Structure formats: C-alpha cells, structure tokens
Amino acid sequence: MRNIKLIIEYDGTNYCGWQTQKNANSIQETIQRAIEKITGTTPNLNGSGRTDAGVHALGQVANFMTESKIPAERFAYALNAVLPKDIIIKASSEADIDFHARYSAKGKQYSYLLLNSKQPTALYRTLAYHVSYGDKLDINEMVAASKGFVGTHDFYGFMSTGSSIKDTTKTIYDIKIEQKDDFIKLTYNGNGFLYNMVRIISGTLLYAGIGRIDANQIFEIIASKDRTRAGITLPAHGLYLEKVFY
Fold first, then answer.
1. pLDDT for 167-213, tens place per residue?
2. For residue 161, which of 245, 76, 94, 228 has the smallest C-alpha distance?
3. Residue 39 host element (H or E)
4. Exactly one of 52, 86, 135, 214 is catalytic; which is it?
5. Binning pLDDT at 50, 70 and 90, where does residue 163 land?
6. Non-local CB neighbours of 62 within 8 Å, separated by 6+ positions
7. Cα gap 162→168, rounded to integer Å
8. pLDDT at 20 over 70
9. Are 84 and 114 part of one and the same domain?
10. What's the structural domain count of the chain?
11. 101 falls within a domain
C-alpha cells in the first residue's frame, strides 16, 4: 500500500465546496472519481480541511492510499488528463505511510482578494470581492487594525454560528496587506482557522479601511467575544487557501 500526496489548485465557483455532499458537486468527489478512473479502485481522499462553496485554492493538500503501480509523480499528469479544467493537480508525490493531509498539518496560509474600484469587474467577478470606490479603503488603517489580530487569542467572536468546535483559541503568526493598482490582497498565516474566521477578519479590516471600526478597538473587540462587534462576513469568492504547512 502506498500513500500519495496531492497539491491541488481549483476554482471553487462551480462547486459546493471541498467536502462530498449528497446531490451536489464537490471538489473531493470530483477528484475521487478521477482517481477511480485511472486506478480502478475508489479511494478515500483526505483533504487538509474543508473549503466552502465558492472558495478557491492555490495549494490545497490531500492524500489517498493506493496499490496502483503508477509512479507517484505521474499521478498529477494522469489526473489532470481526466479532471475538469477548473481543478488542477499541481504536484503529486509519495508520502510516509502515516501522513494525513488534515491531521499532520501544522498551519495554513489563506488570502482574501479585494477590488477597490469605481466599477465592478467582469473578469474577476468570481475571484475578488468588489468594494465600491465610494468606500475608498485606507490601507494604513487596515494595516494598523491587522496588528491587533496577530498573536494567540480566543477568536470566538470571529466564528460563524453552526460550528461545533470547542477550542476557539488560535494563533495568527502574520497578516500581510499588499496593494497593486485597485487590488488589495490580505494574506494570513496561522496554526489554524475557525469556520469563516478569515472572512470575518477580512470584513473587520474592510470596516477599519472605511472608518466604521477604529483600528485601536481590535483588542477590545476580540476580548469581547461578541460577533456583532466585528465586521461583516465577506463572500466566499474572494477567499483562497494558498498553502498548508507540515
């Protein structure tokens, strides 16, 4: 038995998310069908974590066990030949037998892409969240607010309802905010993230950028654990899972 590790890029627009669901088209199920097509057996594909409907990935990681004799590095080429064009296996390799894409992960990097322009975009309508130019974002205020999130905190107030997780303490190592023309990219590195945590923090930074939240209030908002004091949950289509660290 061999353990194959995949690094996956996908456009999540046309999918219900990563996880297999009844009567819905998921990333996980689509890749599993492709593996079955080239190996003849149905795999149990483990992902590093779930991404919601519309969320994209540049470096999702997954693994599966197989008795196939296909060379590990050739799985990427074989799978890309049968996968739809909005899912690409960037690399495939053989991992240690005890490697698990989810349970072996030490941290993740996410990004959120904003477009701050007078008019919305046709080409990036499913890839970036448009913020009207009427709400011109103050990057300096966003950077100042971001510093309040760095470190180890109880992020209970930055988690959407419906999550059953009990330990809401996470560590954010770094938040980087970069602007190129009208695009603003927020990049987050941390040891883990709660359900919709990145989208809520991004909404809070957006509110800081338009003056609805004072950057100096971030510590107080986190400590309050009150979801209503944070910013909005930004839409899924601006969110990217960039890397998983092991």
1. 999 999 999 999 999 999 999 999 999 999 999 999 999 999 999 99
2. 228
3. helix 27-39
4. 52
5. low
6. 5, 6, 8, 28, 31, 45, 46, 47, 48, 101
7. 13
8. yes
9. no
10. 2
11. no
What is residue 134's DSSP assignment? T
CB atoms within 10 A of CB 140: 12
Whether residue 124 is found in the same domain as residue 86? no
Dmax over CA atoms of the chain, in Å, equals: 58
Which residue in the block uniquely carries the two structure tokens 């190592």? 173
Residues 115 and 223 in one domain: yes
* CA angle in degrees (0–180, nearest 5) for 36-37-40: 60
> Among 5, 4, 13, which residue's Cα sits nearest to residue 61?
5
The answer to whether 167 is a known catalytic residue is no
The dihedral of CA 132, 138, 142, 143: what is its sign? positive
pLDDT of residue 165: 80
Predicted confidence at residue 132, as pLDDT, reads 85
Say yes or no: 73 and 139 in one domain.
no
Structure confidence at residue 166 (pLDDT): 82
Q: Which residues of 53-91 are buried (b: 16+ CB within 10 A; e: fewer)?
A: bbbbbbbbbbbbebebebebeebbebbeeebeeebbbee
Tokens 């890309």 sit on residue: 80
72: containing domain: 2-95
Nearest-angstrom CA–CA distance, 62 and 191: 18
CATH number for position 52: 3.30.70.580
Q: Are residues 159 and 207 both part of a single domain?
A: yes
Q: Side chain identity at 212, as an amino acid letter?
A: R
CA dihedral angle for residue 114, residue 116, residue 118, residue 119, rounded to 10 degrees:
-10
